[in-house]
Specification:
Elements: H1 2-42, H2 57-69, H3 80-83, H4 85-94, E1 97-102, E2 105-110, H5 113-121, H6 134-140, H7 149-159, H8 165-170, H9 172-190, H10 200-215, H11 221-242, H12 256-280, H13 289-297, H14 308-339, H15 342-358, H16 363-368
């Protein structure tokens, strides 16, 4: 009887604890996806079938793997099936608007520009920044792209002067100098040969890292490249983690992927801290992006003050976002110019005419003298 009286309370406690958790898991993993899919279907919006826990992640991973094995047609500019094979296939099956699942998170895909414009410009608060996986913040930091409300308004108010029109015009000269420097390196590597092989992806990553380091943070070329290299390596692990199901709490476990993410994140933060410490020793902080943020760190006004951890996050955000998008745009531009060589002369003349007409720091003349 004593044993029975001991077990019963324990069983009751376990029952009270376990049953709600099981019910909650059923709601998240089965009931909610089922109900949402049915509601959207009644509105004419369907999508790929939901799989418990995984959603459509397994299907997405498989399609990406297959797309990477295909050889691109050099005569075609249609890279959408290669870059986003799952979107391409689902659009052909379910239309321009469809519902798919990132694990247990529903995602509505919209490809109609006017509909997207209506949603983004709405003042009713329909659009919010969705909760992101922890890996996103490791890569991008919690900068302007991911904060909301008063914090977003404060950061925007502080950073806005660094992007004034006069300030942007003044950046033209250092950008040209960075570009001409890489041209000089290419000439040295060619040794006078007419044809040479260049890994444009690698070179444009270097160029954009150099430009961002120089114009936004006033750091040296070597510091910018080191930070860029760490961010690029961090990106690889981040992309790998996206195809895995995220279970809350696993970001704290010392798994091989997490250990590498933590190590690379520490390297990135240390690189940024070195740049910040170097600037902090100067008599004046300057009026570039880093200078504006360091001035805010010394401010006594609550609405114009930034903490050091916020400055580090903004640096990560601008470094990665600016470097990645710009380098990809340059690579794509060079590929199109190579495929359509008649465009090269048209572009060259347009650049020379515009630069000479508006007197953009002698850009055209400096390029002409090096042709």
């Amino acid at each position: 009887m004593e044993l029975s009286s001991t077990i019963n309370p324990l069983a009751l406690v376990l029952l009270l604890f376990v049953v709600p958790k099981i019910w909650q898991a059923c709601l998240v993993l089965v009931w909610r996806p089922l109900m949402l899919s049915r509601r959207f279907k009644k509105q004419g919006i369907s999508g790929p079938k939901y799989e418990i826990l995984y959603g459509n992640l397994s299907e997405m991973k498989k399609m990406r793997k297959e797309a990477n094995l295909r050889v691109l047609d050099t005569k075609s500019n249609d890279i959408f099936p290669r870059v986003f094979p799952h979107y391409h296939q689902w659009m052909s099956q379910y239309g321009e608007t469809f519902l798919y699942w990132n694990g247990t998170k529903p995602t509505l895909y919209i490809s109609e520009p006017e509909l997207a414009k209506q949603i983004l410009s709405s003042k009713f608060g329909f659009t919010i920044i969705p909760v992101k996986r922890p890996e996103v913040f490791i890569l991008f930091g919690k900068g302007l792209s991911f904060i909301e409300g008063d914090d977003w308004a404060r950061h925007r108010r502080i950073l806005n002067p660094a992007f004034s029109m006069d300030r942007l015009k003044a950046l033209t000269k250092p950008m040209v100098e960075c570009t001409l420097r890489i041209f000089q390196e290419w000439r040295k590597q060619s040794n006078g040969e007419v044809v040479m092989k260049v890994d444009l992806e690698k070179e444009f990553h270097r160029l954009t890292a150099d430009i961002i380091a120089t114009t936004a943070f006033g750091s040296s070329y070597a510091e910018g490249i080191e930070l860029c290299r760490s961010q690029t390596e961090l990106e690889k692990y981040y992309i790998t983690s996206l195809t895995k199901v995220f279970i809350p709490g696993t970001q704290y476990l010392p798994t091989p992927t997490n250990l590498k993410l933590w190590e690379l994140d520490k390297k990135v933060k240390n690189s940024i801290k070195r740049i910040i410490d170097s600037r902090s020793k100067c008599e004046t902080y300057g009026d570039d992006l880093l200078g504006v943020m360091l001035q805010a760190a010394k401010s006594n006004e609550h609405g114009r003050k930034m903490r050091i951890d916020e400055i580090i996050d903004e640096c990560k955000n601008f470094y990665y976002s600016g470097q990645g998008t710009t380098s990809i745009l340059l690579i794509w531009t060079m590929m199109l110019l190579s495929l359509h060589q008649d465009w090269q002369e048209k572009l060259r003349e347009e650049v020379f005419n515009e630069c000479d007409e508006h007197g953009v720091n002698g850009v055209a003349s400096s390029v002409r003298t090096r042709d």
